Amino acid sequence: MEWLSYLIEFALHLDKHLHELVLHYGTWVYGILFLIIFTETGLVVMPLLPGDSLLFAAGAVAATGGLDPHLLVILLIIAAISGDTVNYWIGHYVGPRVFSQTHSRWLNPQYLQRTHRFYQKHGGKTIILARFIPIIRTFAPFVAGVGAMGYLRFLMYSMIGGIIWVSSFVYMGYFFGNLPIVKENFTLLILAIIVISLLPPVIEFFKHRHSVNHP
Q: Does position 213 have pLDDT exceeding 70, yes or no?
C-alpha cells in the first residue's frame, strides 16, 4: 500500500510538489498535469488520482507566474473532455461484461452500481454533477458508455461539465490560492476540498445502507 500513502502525501502537499515540478521541468508541467487529469477521468481503474485539489493547486502556482492560467485552463479542459470520451467508449465496449461479473480484478462493482444509481436519480446532468465528485467522476463516463446515454448527448454534458469544473477550480486557485491565510493553511484547505468532494458519495452510501436495512 506504499502507492496509496504516497498518493495521499502527494495530494496533501500539491503546492510544494507543483512548485518543484515547475522548477525542474518547466513547460513540461503542462503535459504532466494534462496526463493526470486525462488519466483520472479517462481510465476507470484510476479513480483515486487527485482532481479538484490538483486544479486548485495548479491555479495557485499559476498566480506566482510559474504557469499561464489561461493556457492551463484550455489544456486541462481538453484533457477532461477527451478523458471522458475515452472512458465512455471503454464502457461501451467492455462495460456490459464487467457489469455481469460479481468480482473484478480491476474494477469495484460497488462503484459501478453506486454510479448507476446516481444516473437513475439525476439523469443526464449526472455527467455535469459527477465532475465535482471523486470516484463517481471516473465511473460516470464508463457507465454512460454501457448504454445509459447516446454519445452526442453525453459529449454535450461532458463539455459543459469539463469547462465548469476546470475553469472554476483553476481560477479559484489563481485568485485565492496565494492569499496569506490560504498559503498558511494550504494543506488544511486541500484536505477540506477532498473531504467536501467525498461527502455526496458517502451520504449516498449510507442512504443506500439504510434503505437496505429498513425496506
A: no
pTM of the full structure: 0.77
Non-local CB neighbours of 114 within 8 Å, separated by 6+ positions: 136, 139, 201, 204, 205, 208
Pick the more confident residue, 108 or 77: 77
- Residue-range domain boundaries for the chain: 2-213
What is the reported pLDDT for 126?
80
